[in-house]
Amino acid sequence: MGDFSQVETTEAAKQNPEYAQALTDLLFQLADDDFILAYRGSEWLGLAPHIEEDVAFSSMSQDMMGHAVMFYEMLEQLGVGKADDLAQLREADAFRNGILVERKNGEGDYNTDPHYDWAYAIVRSYVYGLYKQVRLESLLQSSYTPLALVSRKMMTEHRYHLMHWQVWLTQLANSTDEARKRLEAAIEKVWKDAGELYQLGANADAIVRCGLIAGEGELKQKWLTLTQGIFEKAGLVWAGEPGVPEQRGRHGQHTPELAQALATLSEVYRIDPAAGW
Amino acid sequence: MQTQMERSDLTENEKMEAFLAKIDRGGKIEADDWMPDDYRNQLIKLISMHGISEIMGALPEKEWVPKAPTLRRKLAIMAKVQDEMGHGQLLLRVAEDLLAPLGKTREDLMNDLFAKRLKFHNVFHMEAPTWADAGVIGWLVDGAAIITQSMSLDTSYAPYARALHRICAEEKFHAQHGESIVLELAEGTEEQRQMLQEAITRWWPSLLMFFGPPENGTITSNQSANMRYKIRTQTNEELRQVFLKKYLPRIFHLGFTVPDETIHFDEEKDQWVYQQPDWEQFKQIVKGNGPRSAHRLNLRETSYEETKWVRDAIMSYGRHVG
Amino acid sequence: MNKETEVRDDFFIYEVFSQRSVSSSFVHQFSLLAPNKEVALAMARENFLRRETCFNIWVVKRDDIYGLSPEERPFLERLDNKSYRETRGYGDLQARWRHHREQYEEKQKHAESGS
């Protein structure tokens, strides 16, 4: 990337069909990742380990959903559809999020008998957050100027989130045996899905050729180096090469857990999408 | 906080006289000021119930957080429920400081809640089966809460007043959030209007109950103690009338009704005359026998128990590192 | 540790202070429960400054704050006899300067008409 000439406006992007398609494909990945993980975060409302943390955690989910909205609105400007429709009316196979972000928070439903796993919440948020950091840094150089601009805006909030996850990871890793065991189990679970995060989907070549973001190899390397440093500093054993899930989320293959999430997210809107809400 | 030793040359009677004289001239009491046990107990009862109601009040709306019908509404209701938890935090901190000399902590408050010794507002025991219920909670339940909280802004207990000032500032946003949902539904399709009418009908008795039983000329010892101590300034019925005067006309302006055919405004008495809700049912609800009491207590208790390891862990880290 | 603020599950009370901008002073916000200062700081902004802009935050363990007892606080009140350290104690200055200016101008006028 870098040698592609800068595309300053939405109108200019639309004039090149290959470029517009690559941009659309990437934006869905960005939007869906943040949207679905923010949804999982919102399910924790009222259930976090400590009241003060419940309040703090909710802000992270709100910010993340706010970022998703910014990406959906960019898609809307490209003429792909209304932001609310894109978020709520697509079927699961149109979603391009990684499998990691759609996994349930634990057993049970957010409203009935939830048995949620705080260690998984922390590790997933942090591991995804570290990838998002690398991704945002790369997007600062994106050939699509509006994307570079929103990425810069998101960066400040996102760094604040990373500080938060850092405190939790360090403390859980260096506390009781039980916490350590739960944390290691959570890392193992997250790591099975984490290798999909840096994938750019079926249109990866065009996305990179258009200079929208760095290639998968570079994203992967930067993210792994960053993550390894943080895990080792927290005294955690480095898990090595991350795995990939059975389904390929970036290609529209998903677990039933996403379909369930989408049914919940769109339950009211689907009553009458043409109505004002 | 640390301070030097307390003076002990006054008798209990002299302290009591000084205390009453102070609140009578509009003085405020701080957490470390001398206060009669009765005053402390009244405050603990009131503020812990208020605080835990905010925490439990997050749960019926939480049901609608992911389901909110637009991206903007999803963000807004998430922020609103977060605020409720935040209000719970403020109030519980105030209650905890009052409980500290009795050797009690937040953990005791939680255990009191699970054992149904600590009660929470009747409205949060009720079902919220549709999106319109989320709107009605924001509009009318929060509207009712603003009325009771505003009354207490001038309370004699300074830490409570400081918490309430923070809370009331945010409640204005909550009321607007609720009004916005309700107006959208009221201006919407037939189906949306019907959903809203059903929610208003469903919440009406709970809204009347929210302020507590009417005094019928005699106010309870609790209420009179609270008024003597300048913890509160108005009776249940006075507050309910403020609510009815503000909100009934608005319900009618939108073309909706309440399930009370005889309700009317008595110009001479300058008050609304309404059918009493079932106060026996009210007692049952606040005892923890409402339609959703068990479900919501279970949510709270399960999450509290199952995250104990987290609190233990971070406490242990604190001990290692200081 | 002060017995009054001891929490049985051993979480501590932290007082939260914040600074609105680089030119403003720190002000007290409220208190929260946390096991240690790092967690307290991580939760501070969202609990008390969800809407306000914020430039910096401090958390201080309540036990580390030393202050006046309720009995001592009334002694902070001062006699109102210290005008010498306030501008209102120097209200005569302007009139005196005016007097000197007028005298001078008067003299100038005389000098001019005399020459």
UniProtKB/TrEMBL annotation, chain A:
One of its GO terms (biological process) is phenylacetate catabolic process. Transmembrane segments: none annotated. It holds the Pfam family PaaA_PaaC. SUPFAM superfamilies: Ferritin-like. One of its GO terms (cellular component) is cytosol. InterPro entries: Aromatic_CoA_ox/epox (IPR052703), Ferritin-like (IPR012347), Ferritin-like_SF (IPR009078), PaaA_PaaC (IPR007814), PaaC (IPR011882). This is Phenylacetate-CoA oxygenase subunit PaaI.
UniProtKB/TrEMBL annotation, chain B:
Pfam families: PaaA_PaaC. GO terms for cellular component: cytosol. One of its GO terms (biological process) is phenylacetate catabolic process. One of its GO terms (molecular function) is phenylacetyl-CoA 1,2-epoxidase activity. NCBIfam families: PA_CoA_Oxy1. This is Phenylacetate-CoA oxygenase subunit PaaA. It comes from Brevibacillus parabrevis. The gene is paaA.
